[in-house]
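Please check this record.
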Amino acid sequence: MAKRTCKKDDSIAQYERRIYDLEQLIDIARSFSSTIDTNTLLESIVFSCMAQLHVADAGIFVLDSLNSDNFILKTKQNIMDPNNNKNYQIAYSDPAVSFLTENKNSITMDILQKNCPDSAAIKIFQELNPTLIVPLLQKNHLSGILFLGERFYFDAETGIDYTEYEKNLVLSIGSLAAIAINNATLIERSSTDMMTQLKLKYFFFNVLTEKLDNAMSEKKPLSVIMFDIDFFKHFNDTYGHECGDYVLKQVAFLIKQNLREEDLASRYGGEEFTVLLNETTKDAAIAVAERIRSCIENHDFVFNNQHMHVTISCGVAVFDHESNPVTIAKQLVNQADQGLYMSKHNGRNRVTYAPPSLVSLDDEESK
C-alpha cells in the first residue's frame, strides 16, 4: 500500500511540475513578444534559460544576414565572470550549422564532435564550455544557436546533466525565442537605413516621443543633436554619387562610434543626422557634439585614392522641465535644427546650442 501511495505521489508531483513549467512558458512567451529591441530580447532569452535550467552562464549566436551571413555571439551572460565577452563567429557554411538544423534537438559537445569532426565551431564551443547546445529554429530555418553553461547541480546518480524532459523544455523555450528573434529582426530591418545602418527618421521620433514622456514625468534632462554634412553636394558633383555614399557611410560610422550603447543615432534624411542622448544635460550634450564634430574633421576620408576633408555643422537642443519644458518631440528637433542653421550661418564646422526661445512652444507646425 505504501509503494502504491508513493507512486501516486510521484505522478502528482510530475503533473504539478508540468503545469508549473507550462505556466512559466506562457510567461516567457509573453515576455518575448512584448520586446522588439533585439539586444533587450536576447538578454531576456538568456536570463530566462539560466533561471529555468539553473545554469551559471549562457549565450546566443544570432545570424547576421545583413553583413556577413555568419552567426555572431551577440549576448553572453556569466554570473562568475560578467565581463568576459569575447567576439565569436560561426560561419553559416559550418557543418555544425547543418547538423543543428537537420537534427532539431538539443545536443552536448560530445555529440557535436562525433558528428561534425571538421567543424570550426567546435574550437569556439570548447572555449565557451557548454553543457548543452540548442538550435533556435523558425520554420526549419536556423536563426540562432543557444548554449547553456555549467549547471548549479549535477546528478551524480545518473551521471547526466539534463533529463530528456529538461532538453524538451529548453527546446520549447528555443522555439519561442526563434519566433521572437525573427519578429524583432524584421522590425529592425524595416526601421534601419540600409546604407548607413542607422535608424530611420520615423523610428527616431517614436523613441524620442517615449523618452520625452519619461523625461517629463521624471524631471530629467534629454538632449537632441542634429548634424548636417557641410557642402555635401560638392562630393557628389566632384567625385560622383558613389563618393557621396561613401562619405555618408563613414560619417554615420563615426557618429555611432562616439556614442554610448543607450544613445540613438538616425539618418534624418539626405545628409542630415540626429542623435538622442537620454538623461543628458546641456554641457554633456555639447561635449558629445563637439567630440563627433572634431572626430569627423580630423578623419582621413579616402575615396579612390583621393583624400577629402569633411566637416559637419551641429545644433544642440535640451529638454529641461524648468527652462525648456517642451511637450512634443518635433519641438525639440526644431530647436536643434535652428541651432544647426545658426552653425551654418556663422561659418559651418561648429556646434551651436539652441536657446529655447528660438522655437516657440506653441509652434503650430510642431502640433
Summary: The chain has two domains: 2-190, 199-366.
